[in-house]
Design goal:
two-stranded parallel ribbon, 34% strand, eight-stranded mixed beta barrel, 205 residues, 2% helix, Sortase, Chain: A, mainly beta, single chain
């Protein structure tokens, strides 16, 4: 899930976004279809926005407000054109969509994770929907820099109405999207996606 990849950043041509969110091992719930909606107006928290960073692959994600501290794997596109999701394993971790900007670059960087991992229990993003405006998200980069983002909004949307433009559309500053499944579980799947929108507010060496 994310912007700029040959086929991915043309929202009109986008076919899908998030496939599985943690059914039983090996299960692949159907991916939602993309719907076009206007990008939300995201207001940066008070203070000047730092300059965009150079490209550097993220290696770790921490979200103190909900106890997340996870290494990040790289995710690409599956053979059916959907965005890959991390494998369903006992030691769940989140993944960065490698066709999106790296965190801190201009544009929306996208990170995905499970809310549950089948018979293994809770996923790394089990409490993602609890985040609120003003909470911090930190991404450690291969360069050694940590890009610190501040949550601007949290949305729960039906997968059938996934807001592709909001998630993948061009933006003129460094932003972050953190995505998992949501809503009441039914069988091996969930009807909704939880999407956290955040903006870069500081960097640390």
């Amino acid at each position: 899930m994310t912007p700029l990849s040959r086929r991915v950043l043309l929202p009109a041509a986008l076919a899908v976004l998030l496939a599985g969110c943690g059914g039983r091992p090996g299960a692949e719930p159907a991916a939602p279809q993309v719907s076009g909606s206007a990008p939300p107006s995201l207001s940066a928290p008070a203070g000047s926005t730092p300059h965009a960073l150079r490209r550097s692959v993220p290696v770790r994600l921490t979200i103190p407000a909900i106890g997340v501290d996870t290494p990040l794997m790289r995710l690409g596109l599956a053979s059916d054109g959907t965005v890959q999701v991390p494998p369903v394993t006992a030691h769940d971790r989140a993944g960065w969509y490698a066709h999106s900007p790296t965190p801190g670059q201009t544009g929306p960087s996208v990170i995905l994770g499970h809310v549950t991992v089948g018979s293994y229990g809770d996923g790394v993003f089990r409490h993602l929907a609890r985040l609120r405006r003003g909470d911090r998200i930190q991404t450690r980069l291969e360069s050694g820099t940590t890009a610190v983002f501040t949550v601007s909004s949290v949305r729960t949307v039906a997968k059938a109405d996934f807001p592709a433009k909001d998630v993948y559309g061009d933006v003129g500053r460094p932003e972050l999207r953190v995505i998992t499944c949501g809503g009441p579980r039914s069988g091996d799947g969930y009807p909704d996606n939880v999407i956290v929108f955040a903006v870069l507010t500081s960097t640390t060496p």
